[in-house]
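Re: that chain you flagged

S.,

Sorry for the slow reply, it's been a week of failed gels. I finally had a moment to sit down with the sequence you sent. For the record, here it is as I used it:
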Amino acid sequence: MVAITYDMEVTSSLPAAKMFKAMVLDADTLIPKIMPQAIKNVEIVEGDGGVGTVKIIHFGEGSQYKSAKHRVEAIDKENLTHTYSIIEGDALAGVLESITYHIKIIPTEDRGCICKNRSIYNTKGEVEINEEKIKEGKEKAMAMFKAIEAYVQANPDA
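Prediction finished late last night. Pasting the structure tokens below so you have them in one place:
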């Protein structure tokens, strides 16, 4: 198995705790609401949302994938960190064992935040990963981040 790591960083004018709530704690209901073409719904099949919880993400009409099974590896509400892995589904394209995402939201002095995301692609054997697919994934993640940010800015009490 080969692990390929990619890092992404994006800034937001939203306070860190508000962004963490939207991106992590409320994501299962918020993202299908604001981006139904990306994610139709999220179904918890095991657990209570904390560490060890297993969810099935049902992708929307605009996605090339149908579903992915996702496991919460770690969540720290005080330090605004979240780690989860995609462990099954067509998003693994038959060449990946899993994809692990580490998210850390860091407050900035201007009361905004920086969202750091590390993606680790764990391949089956010595499989090469298509850089174009990785770039597509990063662009989709950025679009989702910006959509969440815009929604929270437009609905501050949400």
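What I noticed first: Strands lie at 3-12, 39-46, 54-59, 67-76, 81-89, 96-107, 113-123.

Talk soon,
D.
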